[in-house]
Each structure stands twice: as structure tokens, then as C-alpha cells.
Amino acid sequence: MDFLVIARREIEAGIPVIPIKAGQKQPPLVSGGTTSASIDLEQIRKWAEQFPDANVGVVCRLDGILIVDDDEGIVEKSGIPVRTRVVESSPGHRQYYFRQTADSVGVGNLSQRGGFSLRSHNFYGLAAGSRHPHGHFYTLLEDAPIQEMPAGLLSYLQKANTAAKNSLAGNLEVLNGRKLGEGEGRNDDMTRLAGFMWDGQLDEEEFVEKLTWACELRHDPPYPEGRVRELVRRVMDGKWKPCSGFDLANLLPDGPEHHGFWIGLTSYLSRDAFDAAVSRRPKALTLKQLDAQIQAARSLEELVQGMLPVRAVNIIGGDSGLGKSPLLCQLAVCVAAGIPFLGHEVKKSRVLIADYENDAALSGMIHSVATAVGAAENALEDSLFILQRPEQRDLLSEVVKIGARLVIVDSLRGFDSQAESSKSGRGSQMIAELQALDCCWLLIHHLRKPPANAETPKAALDDDSIPVLTWLESLAGSRSLVNQTFTRIGIDRTSRKSADLVVRGYFKGRGEFGPLYLERKYDEAGEPIGFVKLAGAGMLSLNQRADLQKVLSIGISHSFGELANLLGKSGASRMLGACRAAGLVREIGRKGQKDRRYEFQMPDEVGNQ
After folding, report:
1. Residue 170 pLDDT more than 90?
2. Residues 10 and 149 grouped into a single domain
3. Is the peptide bond preceding residue 221 cis, with omega within 30 degrees of 0?
4. Of the segments 49-53, 214-218, 264-268, 458-462, which one has the largest average pLDDT value?
5. Could you tell me if 416 and 426 are in contact, meaning their C-beta atoms sit under 8 angstroms apart?
6. Which of 34, 324, 455, 507 has the fewest CB neighbours in a 10 Å radius?
7. Do residues 484 and 425 share a domain?
8. pLDDT tens per residue across span 477-533
9. Would 200 be classed as within a structural domain?
10. Where residue 569 sits, what CATH number does that domain have?
11. Number of domains into which the chain is organized
12. End-to-end CA distance of the chain
């Protein structure tokens, strides 16, 4: 092999080249890689003196050529006739050279999927005459002038790539004894298999043996050992951290930095997000490590104090028609403007509302709430965004694009209708996908409709004898929606006359918070404009406030017996419960003991927040 002879043939055809390590596909031997490619004969001669036996990389550029790297005969299957240069890299594996067109420039690179890739810009292939890592040489199968990329073939490849990409989003195909034949995605299937097997511990021979065995079970014919070994080496030499279930579906093309990071069949948009996902994968902990993890949860950075951490997938559930959407609009406005939400401090951040239910009514809700909480409209200009009825992929893309820190999905059913199904397992998968993004998700969900012949009514959320996690088991769909989310919040009507709603939640690692009793506020025209949290005496009915005044008139500290003598046992019990919820009583002494006493206070102001 003579670098100068091969390279000269390519530059005479107007194709820029670079020297590649002899007998290998990478790395380029010049700094700058593809950006250093040249068609200058003097430069080629200098490289030939330095690297006389180097392989020749032919570089694809938007003003030059593109290469269709075809491992599965996709070009022939298209039925579109081509007459252009064709190089064979290995038996059955062809590289078709085409001149760029305006359409192909618009398409750009297509990653290796469905048995082919399209290398369009800043990618390279090896020229005919270069030596393959397995020892054979690339051969010029068709020595013809390079034709322009046919528009029909380009369209066909785009559709095939999209179809293959969508298929990679699922699990391994269940074949039930059938084997994948030529052109049925053996390449992608083998790549998935390799991803599931690679744990960072296998040596090359063991890895090749396992992957070969799996391919023999699933493919007819299976790829030869040389092809399997090539994939294994790419996996083991890749730049990603190895981890169990690591899917390398996008590793095959050159330049893997363009194709994201993968765990299982989930793609992460950045290395940081990938590393964070790896760190969240379950592993056995010592008791000391578990204690440290619990302590870390207690000190999490919070987006909404005591409610929502800055990064987690959270859920809020309640019946239809309660006012969940207006309440969450209020949360969105408060976080976007940096205003406390129902008395809880917030971290001012960009907010994205993914709306599947309110459409044009959402704008009115936001304007009303902004007025109610005192948020200036210019405070929301670059911090509150609305995306109506987006596809999942579009929503994830927008979250990254605008840098949203809080994403409110109204509602889960509109975002992913399969997430409720316990049979599909989609709920767990969806939560894992959302966790990959560095933000706080809040999914709005509905309760399961009780059967028409139900003998007992739904439990009340303000019944403090029922744990909030037990109440949330009535959410529609899979239990994973409650078990695998971080903060879980319930919202319900309340029997308290002074309040419209009650909110209780569970913050993982800390336990329950609430109840928060909320009163709906209205404008002068009688239109609802937001909620306030009742605090202090504002949570008491007129009768309860009168009872509290009666108690305070004879002192601030009392035993239960003294209260019972004044109000009766049932009256004393009801007033104590109301004052506890309002934060107007402090309990002194041990529960159940004779020295147990209650200290009361009566604020001057109602203190709603």
C-alpha cells in the first residue's frame, strides 16, 4: 500500500484526504482531524514522507462528496438505479460515493441505523487500497464517475433511518423462535445485544463468545466472527463509561461524540446527565452509606422550600374539576417571578408548562394569577414558557433548549397515555427518561374513578389518620407513578368551611408535609384569580374562633380536662384539632401523661399567604 498513490487518485477526483493510522480506521495522524483535510499535492507529498504506509481517509464535506455506508444492501433495496463510485470495505459491505446536492446538504449526517449510515459532513471513510483492521484491503468495486445524490434515494434513506431510529426506542424484539434475516435489522439487533452484555468487566474473548452465541440464536445468517469482534473492540475502546445495560446503538459511526450517551435504550443529551443517571442506578449499600444517602436527601437543594427539589420527577394528583391547573399556574408564575408560593420560598427559575388540557384558557389563568400574586408581566417575559400539546420528543428538546428548571405537565395522560398502564411498564420507563434531564418535573394526574356500585366513599385527604401515600394509591394507573416519583402530592376538597382545598404531600427522605388549607380568591367580577394558604386564625370557623377567645380569656395554658370542662370533651377535641392545623397551639409535656398541657395564641391578623 502506498499512501501517495492512493491519495493522489482521490485528490484528482476533487476529494480531500487525511492520513489515518496504518491498518486501522482511526485515529487521523494530523492535528485537526477532518478539518485538516487537503487536496493540495504538495501537502499530500509531505504527509507521504511522514506516513508512507498510512491508510487514506476520504473526507466528506457539504461542498464535496457524501458516502452512504451500506452494510445491509439498503441502496439495492430502494430500487433506485445508481451509477457511481462504489468501494467494498468487507464482503457485502459497500460504500457509495455521491456528489452533494442542496437537498443532501439540508439532510446532513444520518447515524448508523437500519444497517447503513450517511456520512455527509466532517466524517471520513477509507479509500480503496487502504488496509482493513482485519488485514484485507478496501477494493474499488465500481470505478465510475461520482454522480449527484439522487433525490429519491435520499428520501428513501431518510425514511429508513427514521423507522430504524424509532425501533431502537423499544426493547429487544421478541422473536419467538424466528430469526432475523438479511435486511431485517441484524446490525442494530447485534448492537443492542452488545450494549446489554457490556458491563466493563468482560475480556475480549469472553465478550466475543457471548455475543457470537446470542447472534447465532437470533440471526440467519449470523455475522462472521470478524464482524462481531470488530463491534466488541469498538465497544471496549469507546469513550463511554461501561455500565450494565449500556446500549451502544449509536457507536458504530465515526465521531461518536455526535450521538449522545446511552443507558439501556435511553439516550442522554450530555455527559453530565449520563453520569448522573449512572450514579442513580440501584446498587447495594452499607448501613453507613444508606444513612449518608438519607442525610443527603434531607439537605437537597430545593426549588420550592419543603416541597420540590431542584432535580426530580414529582407527581400531584386529585379529582377533575378541583382547580389543579389554576393552582399549578400559580406555582409556575411564582417560580418564574421569584415570589413565594403559598408562603414557601422559591428559587427563581425558568418554567415550562406543557399544556394538554387548557388550550386558550391557559393564557387567562396565567394573567389572573400573575395579577393576584403581584408578578409584573415583564418578570415573566424570559422566564415562563408554554408549549401546547407537544409530542414527547419536542417537549424534551424544548426543555434543554430553553434551560427550563421547572417543567409542569398538565396532564400526564396527555403527555404519555401509556404511562398509566401497569402491564406496559411504560410508567417506570418514562420516569427514568425524565430523570435524565437536569430539572424538576411536576406531573399532574387524576384519580381512579370509583366503580358505580362502590359501597364506601373515597377517603378524605384531610383525614390525618390516613397516610398521604395511602390516599395517593387511588391515583389512576400503575403504582410506579407513586412509588418511583420523588415528591408526591395530593389535592382534595375539604370539609372545613373556611377552606376550599387541602394539600398534603410526601417528600422522599423526609416524610409528610402539610396539610395546607387553601382558600380560592376572586376578582371584583367574581372570576377566580388564585389561592391563598390559610394560616393562623384564618383557618378557624367563627365558632372555633369564639371558643378560642373563651379559652384565652382564662389563660393561655390548659390541660385537656380544663378544656373539656369549658367546652365539653367533643368541643375541646375539635378545637384542639383546628388549632393544631392553624399552628395556634403548642403542646408541652409527654403525650398521655397528666402533665400534658396546651399553650394557645390568638394572632391579631388572619395571616393568609
Report:
1. no
2. yes
3. yes
4. 49-53
5. yes
6. 455
7. yes
8. 878 788 889 999 999 998 877 789 999 889 987 788 878 889 888 888 777 888 998
9. yes
10. 1.10.10
11. 4
12. 80
